[in-house]
Batch of 2 targets.
Target 1
Amino acid sequence: MPASLSFSVATPGGPRTARVVLERRGAGRPLVLLHGIGHHWQAWEPVLDILAVDREVIAVDLPGFGASDALPDGIPYDLDGVIRVLGTLFETLGVKRPDVAGNSLGGLFALELGRLGLVRSVTALSPAQFWNEAERRYAFGVLSVMRAGARALPPSLVAWLARGAAGRAALTGAIYARPARRSPAAVVAETRAMREAVGFDATLAAGNSELFTHDIPDIPVTIAWGSRDRVLPRRQGVRAKRVIPGARLVRLPGCGHVPMNDDPALVARVILDGSR
């Protein structure tokens, strides 16, 4: 069962309380998993039990997403604000320099944690902020359409659509190459997560003009990209490799923007290989 954890975070205006929901499984060296914008920790469900055979896996609902609370007053939804909360979360959990894997927005956070020396290794699956301006506008447009659809469709209609493969494709085909593999219950839950994500708009606004431009020379970094990513084209992986020359760049054949559902065994192997 997911756990709810409250802890104090330092801000310029004094300490504030954050509350984060997370799922912990397995035993071994800690591996933290960070989802993308509008999603929740259950995005990692297809790979959790595979990873938990060898590792203690900690899948986090990012602040303002899933069942976690919004960021406290005084902490913005930018890179610095979220990383401050994640760093404090690690301290509260008693995990010092865990391995971390992230997808999309979570991949960006994973890279920043690596740059700051807060983690032992990074695996970033289709990380954000390696786009050009046209690609950024396109990605934000896709995400905004998904958000608008999730908010407009009545829950009863979402549940009806999710029963069939065509309906699951309509609801999640932008992020999965194989949406029919996602269960109806999972599609209903992640559509609700997108609809109720209180941090969505502020997070999108915070990334309007940002690029990730820092090398991460001191720890292992893996950057993996789905060959069928319809949100962030895989050519952005080549740009990421130029920014982080020592990174291992891996292609995920047949996978979409959220590849854990499309090929769980491959994604789990890439994460474990990158965090040995």
Target 2
Amino acid sequence: MTTTTEAASTEAASTEAASTEAASTEPGRRDAGDPRGGRFDSSLGLIMLLLVVVVAQGPVRRALSAPVAQSWMTVFTAVVLQALPFLVLGVLLSALIAVFVPPSFFARALPRRPAVAVPVAGVAGAVLPGCECASVPVAGALVRRGVTPAAALAFLLSAPAINPIVLTATAVAFPRQPQMVFARFVASLFVACAMGWLWQRLGRADWLRPPDRPAFHGHGKGAAFWASVRHDVMHAGGFLVVGAMAAATLKAVVPASWLRGAADDPVVSILALAVLAVLLSICSEADAFVAASLSQFSLTARLAFLVVGPMIDLKLFAMQTGTFGRGFALRFAPATFVLAVLVSTLVGAVLL
């Protein structure tokens, strides 16, 4: 019996030792044989990119010295440098208002009658000097605090388009066409109010799914402010760069005959720039400079670009879907686009 017990103990000890040795050598085997042992991180990627640039500096220098590349970089730099101060100022003021001004303030300031509250909310959009990324959560907070959805939607559409930062940027971008500022204000405010009244008349409660909690729930005021600033700078700055790249490409790469062909047809030019505004998704503090660079197109077509962009683009559609629901966005976005194009065309024909 003792011999059997000792043999079993010896066998168990041997098994444990073998398991321990296998476990100790397994990481070494995995590091040696598993290709996943070496990770490709951002630092390694940057080093490899720099090495490629150093090795191929001759062809890169020749490519950058080409007239097309020089023209592209000139337009891109000009658009970014002109728009950047307005973007930063708008982001800071938007974060201040979104964090330190309670949504209940807007609820108390708006009239109780929806038909009257819609234009008041549309004009009140001028007190939110930020991009359209900030207007969606604020509109959601208004709905959550009991503001009629028609007024909240009018505020959502007007705030990015008629606030002082955007109008000042438009005046700087079009120094010889001051009527563009007034035309943008009139067209944007009219579209915002018309969509609010349209929702009041035809909208249904089951199409609108309001958000469940505040945008900065669980954060202190300071943390919420800097979180809002970081979010808006990353998003708005990224879209500004994309928009500047697109404008520079249109100016430097696309044949002038193509642009003239689209610009010479009044209907095609308006639709082309309206669709371009949706696709580029440029922040409203910067879109005036991109529109000003598209000098081949008429002022009316560029007005459509400025009115459509802050109201409906790809990022706004995604944000509206996440905030109010897919059923709302699928109905609200196409109606806003059509109305914005029509109003821009009419206002441009009268004022421009």
